[in-house]
Amino acid sequence: MQAGTSVRHARPTDASQMARVHVDGWRQTYRGTVPDGVLDDPGLLASRERFWHGALTDERWARNAVAVAEVGGTVVGIAMAGPPPDPEAWWQVQLHVLYVDPDHHGSGAAAELLDAVVDPTAPAALWVADPNPRAQVFYRKHGFAPDGHARTEDGVRELRWVRP
């Protein structure tokens, strides 16, 4: 991992910085797929901040693991994983969120975040946008592969990837 970068459990006081990384990640990843009106909504950042505050304080989310990568006290990456929402899932954990600020791509922060929220030896699953070659190369490198399931949510086609 890049010198000066650390990964730790997220705290409620991180919610605003986490929201910024999340929204920036969406805008970078989904621009051209999701309508600009959604990505440029003036309330999007506040909405994501409320989401992250809830994810870090509400008992309903207590079984999730949430981590941040930071450099010099600034959050540059976020990750969240938890129990799979599908009761018939054979994997133990599902990655729900993983974004790293573009200025820190290639720093190793994403790999550290993934390992912080998903045991590297545990069967796991995630949904990844298609196309999203950068993310797909990353997940393949970490043992994930598409299992043939696809869905479309909010206009974004996603593929399910699993790691046995």
Descriptive report:
InterPro entries: Acyl_CoA_acyltransferase, Bact_Acetyltransf, GNAT_dom. Residues 5-164 form the N-acetyltransferase domain. Keywords: Acyltransferase, Transferase. By secondary structure, the chain is an alpha+beta fold. The chain is 32% helix and 32% strand. The protein has a single domain (5-163), classed as Gcn5-related N-acetyltransferase (GNAT) (Aminopeptidase, 3-Layer(aba) Sandwich). It has helices spanning 15-30, 36-39, 44-57, 109-117, 133-141; strands at 5-9, 65-71, 74-82, 93-100, 124-129, 145-153, 156-163. The protein has a 7-stranded mixed β-sheet with strand order 1-2-3-4-5-7-6, with helices on both faces. It is globular and about 35 Å long. The mean pLDDT is 95.
Quick recap:
The radius of gyration is 15 Å and the shape is globular.
Taking the alpha carbons of the first and last residues, their distance comes to 25 Å
Q: CATH superfamily name?
A: Gcn5-related N-acetyltransferase (GNAT)
Give the SSE string: EHHHEEEHEHEE
Helix content: 25-40%
CATH topology: Aminopeptidase
Going across the biggest sheet, name each strand in turn: 1-2-3-4-5-7-6
